[in-house]
Request: fold
Amino acid sequence: MPAFSSELIAIMRAALEQVMTKVPPAKATPAIKAHLAESILRAAAEGETSEQGFITAAADQLPTILSLFTPVDRPPQRASHPPD
Reply:
């Protein structure tokens, strides 16, 4: 894992917070945030250094990430009854 300067980490953190504003509040979970952070880290590892570049890298992944964490509609479960 590459080492990043504290300045670059601050830029990445600001980009993550900016991208999180694009996530619907009902879906703004820690898992979504972690996946977006991973996108930003990947971009940094590939040489990106600008806040806008990090925002673009994460925002490009947003539809895919949100679709991965959208619950699938399931039929209601029947209540289980304890054995007699």
Remarks:
- Helices lie at 6-20, 30-45, 51-68.
- The chain is about 60% helix and 0% strand.
- The mean pLDDT is 87.
- The radius of gyration is 18 Å.
